[in-house]
Amino acid sequence: MPPHAQTEFAAFLARADVSQAAFARLTGLTPRQVNNWARGRATVPTWAAILAVLLQDHSPEALTIAVEEARQEVVAAQQPSQRPVDSLSAPWSSAAAPRSSSDGRAPPPVRQSPSLKP
Predict the structure, then answer these.
(1) What predicted TM-score, i.e. pTM, was given to this entire model?
(2) Is the pLDDT of residue 43 over 70?
(3) 10 neighbors 39 (Cβ within 8 angstroms)
(4) Confidence band for 71, pLDDT divided at 50, 70 and 90
(5) What is the pLDDT of residue 93?
(6) I want to staple 31 with a disulfide (CB 3.0 to 4.6 A). Which of 23, 24, 56, 85 is the partner?
(7) Number of other CB atoms surrounding residue 23 within 10 Å
(8) Residue 57 lies in a domain
(9) Structural domain count of the chain
(10) Is residue 63 in a domain?
(11) Cα separation, 60 vs 10, whole angstroms
(12) CA 103, CA 15: separation in Å to the nearest integer?
């Protein structure tokens, strides 16, 4: 944040009706650090100013839920795709056989193993 905006951080929290202590709990920081930002004794990180602005329109609980949902989406996107076994088909199964060839003719029938009768 630019230096002139340091004192605006306290105003953002006041307009959001969020105390410095509540903001500290929400972010996992110490109340002293948040107080240093509010008094202009330390530079307010951009993320903290953005969060303070968002709190003017959204409750801390709503933002906590939104952040958790976003975190879960990011984690899921970072994991390799997990397709169910049912959706996998072996190349030799009839489900995987092409419906027609490139010249429009039907593919040869899939040969079935003869059943063994006792």
Answers:
(1) 0.57
(2) yes
(3) yes
(4) confident
(5) 47
(6) 24
(7) 25
(8) yes
(9) 1
(10) yes
(11) 16
(12) 71
